[in-house]
Amino acid sequence: MEMQFEPLDLPGVSLERPVVITGPCSAETEEQVMDTARSIASKGIKIFRAGIWKPRTKPGGFEGVGTRGLPWLKRVKKETGMYVATEVATREHVFEALKAGIDILWIGARTTVNPFAVQEIADALHGTNIPVLVKNPVNPDLELWIGALERLYNAGLRRLGAIHRGFSSYDKKIYRNQPLWHIPIELRRRLPRLPIFCDPSHIGGKRELIAPLSQQAMDLSFDGLIIESHCDPDSALSDKDQQITPDVLDYVLHLLVIRNEVQTTENLAELRRQIDGIDEQMLELLAKRMRVSREIGVYKKEHNMPILQTPRYDEILENRSAMGEEMDLSTDFVKKMLEAVHEESVRQQMIIMGDEKQLKVES
Ligand code: PEP
Ligand code: MN
After folding, report:
1. Where are the CATH 1.20.59.10 domain residues in the chain?
2. Rounded to the nearest whole angstrom, what is the distance from the C-alpha of residue 228 to the centroid of ligand 1?
3. How far is the CA of 163 from the centre of ligand 1 (A)?
4. Helix, strand, coil: what percent of the chain each, to 5?
5. CATH 3.20.20.70 for domain 19-255
6. Distance of alpha carbon 342 from the chain centroid
7. Residue 19, class by beta-carbon neighbours within 10 Å (0-12 exposed, 13-18 middle, 19+ buried)?
8. Using CB atoms within 10 A as the burial measure, which of 106, 255, 281, 362 is most buried?
9. Which pLDDT value is given to residue 356?
10. Residue ranges in the chain whose pLDDT is less than 70
């Protein structure tokens, strides 16, 4: 389905990168909301965020102030002139948010995973054209992310955007949520007109990762940033390790280098020609490798040998990883590439054995 999006189109908000949305993870008290908002507005920022209903991993945490926080956001709008944004997860949230005059809605990562919940929100929004930003689902599933956008689109919403907030993983290392940048990059390729925001707060989970992640997002041509900020981060009731003060936020934004040059110079054109040539050689080599693999397949068939020869595969992985390291290629990259090549070789040999009908190896 080809979706024809409309720009977010918020009068007074410049479309120059990055479009910035900021504010606390959660609205906690009227005073905290107003203090934070005034300080943010004084930096020239135009869009304020605050969670009113908070999805929490475990019960017992701070689940947001609920509907009684909506008048605080109305007050932010009135006193600072900023647009206000909040998260909705149910039909009731949508009705309350629309009634309170919230300008922008977002759908949280734990909601995007659930087509029933997204459909309920889409149905409740039918007949409005309010901007809605869809966070990626917690699991790395691009189709589910696009599916949520399609549900909103089918309900008549056109001012849509996406928020990349990273993907959860069992072994948390540097990041709270793995960035897996190739997923938003593929989203951009599939839906080139959809504005994409990066949420470095939820990806990093730590204050010190906000600046580098924001810079990476800008270098990958993201349109905007949604960053959590709080007048007193250390006492925040949710996500305190990843919130920064409006002053620090302002500093981070000023440090960003925005590279907007699209002009192609002769030097770049020459380098790209080299890449084109190398890619062609690489594909020819791969085709040749597959031809040899098929010959091996014929041999195995004739000699009644099974396709998988584990010691041989281990040897390939080990020997090529060492070779790659010598050539400054990351072990992880070499391993992934060889796995893909091996998987395809196995698939080719299965075709030769006549197995492909019984067993399907995903390629
Ligand atoms: C949030 O933005 O505060 C939030 C709950 O984010 P996510 O849905 O990305 O976890
Ligand atoms: Mn948060």
Report:
1. 266-353
2. 10
3. 10
4. 50, 10, 40
5. yes
6. 29
7. buried
8. 106
9. 60
10. 356-363
